[in-house]
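Study both lines:
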Amino acid sequence: MSSIFTDIVEGKIPSYKIAETPTCLAFLDINPNSVGHTLCIPKKEVDLIFDLDQDLYQDLMNFSKKIATALKKAVPCERIGMSVIGLEVPHAHVHLIPINSMKDVSFKNKVKLETKDFEILVDQIKSFL
C-alpha cells in the first residue's frame, strides 16, 4: 500500500516542492512546527529509515544536508533541527525544522500558513540551492 508521500512523489497529491534528485524529494510540511519546516524523503517507498540500503540512506542524508543549508539561509533561525520520528507516515522521512527554542521541535506546536506563504518560502529556499 502506498503512502501519502508516494502519492506526492508520483504527483497524485500536490506539494510545495523545494528540490528533487533521482532518488530524493524535499517539500514543505503542510502542518509545520515552524515556518520553513521541510520534509526530505527517499522516492522509493521504505517504511523505516534504517531499512534503507546504504546508498539510499547516504543519498537521503547528503540531500537533507544540502536542503538544510539552503533552509538556514532562507529562514531566520538559530539553527536547523533534524528529526526522524517515523510514526505518522509509513515512509522514511527526515524533518528539517528551523528552530529558535525547544518548543519549535515539539510536534504539538504548529504554525498556520497561507498558500502564498508556502509559495514564497519555496522560492526563498530554492534561491539558496
